[in-house]
Amino acid sequence: MMSNYPNLWPYQEAQRIIERWPDKPRYILETGFGASGHPHMGTIGEVVRTFYVAKALREMGRESEIIVFSDDMDGLRKIPTNIDAPWLQEHLGKPVTRIPDPYGCHQSFGHHMDAELLEMMAKTEIQATFRSATDCYADGTFDEGIRHMFRHMQGIIDLVLPTMRPENREGWFPWLPVCENCGKVYTTRVESYDPDAVTVTYSCTGSFRDVHGCGYRGTQSALGGRGKFFWKADWALRWYVFGVNFEMHGKDLIDSAKLSKAIVRLLGGDPPNTMFYELFLTEEGRKISKSSGIGISMENWGRWGTQDSLNLLMFRNPRQQKRLSPETVIQYTDETLTMSPEDPQYPFIYYHGDRPDLGGLRYSDIINLVNAISETDPDVLLEYLGRSFGHERIRANEPFVRELLEKAIHYYEDFILPTRRTPELTEAEWALVEEFEQLIERTDDAEEIQTGVFDIARAHGMQPKRFFQILYGVLLGSDSGPRIGGFVTLVGKDRIRELIRTAREKARS
């Protein structure tokens, strides 16, 4: 079967699923979302990766369903750094769907985050079934699974306890009741349980960070949304109830996935195939901190990068660690804009429809244009792009181009403006810049300009690389940049002369 398909990982994963369940009429693929904060492009990236496997299954003649599951019964452990609502402190420990919405527009904190996720998912045009933990625990969806797990509770405990640190084992129990008095979920401690009645007796005497239980003691049913399983057992519950066949997860969850699979087998179920992916790193090679908000991360990729660039980032070898930097955004966006429709990756990156024909326009061209003319008015920038890439072509694809302009302007404001500098050149180096001015007066041909720069450098015994650095410093305030010939054509000779004059005046002042 695989001989008919490119040697790409979505086809390989689809083949593994089909070989394991050859007669199943419809496969269930799941991905999860933590509703304790705003969803971001990384959240959507997991949905996209799962969709790639579903797409491969469809091409192989198999049906599938993607479930996007929100863990909105989880308690809020800390106030997200990007939410200005200090009053949330009094609600720490409560399930997020039982905390008021900080923005005042939805039923709860969790419902607000779920709504943001659904809005982001709609933009991807990926068909998926949304499931809420709050609903599944409350409306009976999980009831039979909960009863079954309570009958196997001791077996679950025996599987989990050896994987825990010794200091955390005492008093640990897989079920987390929601306290009837204070509403917290992480401060309750189960003292006993009745597997037949599916009830627990608990005390609200635990604590985490600076959050403490209220001391209440009671007995309650485990049904009707009155509690939840701790997350590894919760993962197993979802797999068991929904009959999940495939789920991806980060490399840091390999052991957790093994444990959840073992719980499913204990219940008599058939655990899914799983595929781990490597985590993203900072440009310095460190694990990205979600709380720091510094640099490029999946949380803020969407400010500078397109959905298509994220699609490529998520598609490209998930098992390989990738460092995220400002240059990464440019690299992946440029690749999506120049990828040939014949490339086997193309149907996955542009699953929603063919890419507009922009005549070879790159994202880096737009960023360099914004930098060179110091202009953030999209209408002005559209006029410049029209001169180089055709006004008719730019107008025909204006919504797409405007999106690229919006991202490029953000990039310019966040990464380029703060680092722009005026180069310190010798008189001899300024003399070479004057020769460059004379060169662009003699010709409008981009290749002749490019070649002419090499000729000027060599005629004066200078390495061409150094001369290009000089020109980039004068024109863009940086050490690197685009092909000079094409850049002159894009920006225009008048603007080039103005940039040189301004840089010379700053150097002399």
From TrEMBL:
Record-linked PANTHER family: LYSINE--TRNA LIGASE
Gene3D superfamilies for this protein: 1.10.10.350, HUPs
Motif extent ('HIGH' region): 35-43
InterPro entries on file: aa-tRNA-synth_I_cd-bd, aa-tRNA-synth_I_codon-bd_sub2, aa_tRNA-synth_I_cd-bd_sf, Lys-tRNA-ligase, Rossmann-like_a/b/a_fold
NADP recorded as keyword: no
A Pfam cross-reference name: Anticodon_2
Binding site for ATP: 290
Protein name as annotated: Lysine--tRNA ligase
Residue ranges the record marks as coiled coil: none
Domain Aminoacyl-tRNA synthetase class I anticodon-binding positions: 403-502
Family the UniProt entry places it in: Belongs to the class-I aminoacyl-tRNA synthetase family.
Top-tier EC class: ligase
GO biological process assignments: lysyl-tRNA aminoacylation
Keyword hit for ATP-binding: yes
NCBIfam families for this protein: lysS_arch
Species this protein is from: Symbiobacterium thermophilum (strain DSM 24528 / JCM 14929 / IAM 14863 / T)
GO cellular component, one term: cytoplasm
GO MF term set: ATP binding; lysine-tRNA ligase activity; tRNA binding
Localization, UniProt: Cytoplasm
EC number(s) from the headed UniProt entry: 6.1.1.6
Motif 'KMSKS' region per record, residues: 287-291
Gene that encodes the chain: lysS2
Recorded catalytic activity of this chain's protein: tRNA(Lys) + L-lysine + ATP = L-lysyl-tRNA(Lys) + AMP + diphosphate
Keyword tags: Aminoacyl-tRNA synthetase, ATP-binding, Cytoplasm, Ligase, Nucleotide-binding, Protein biosynthesis
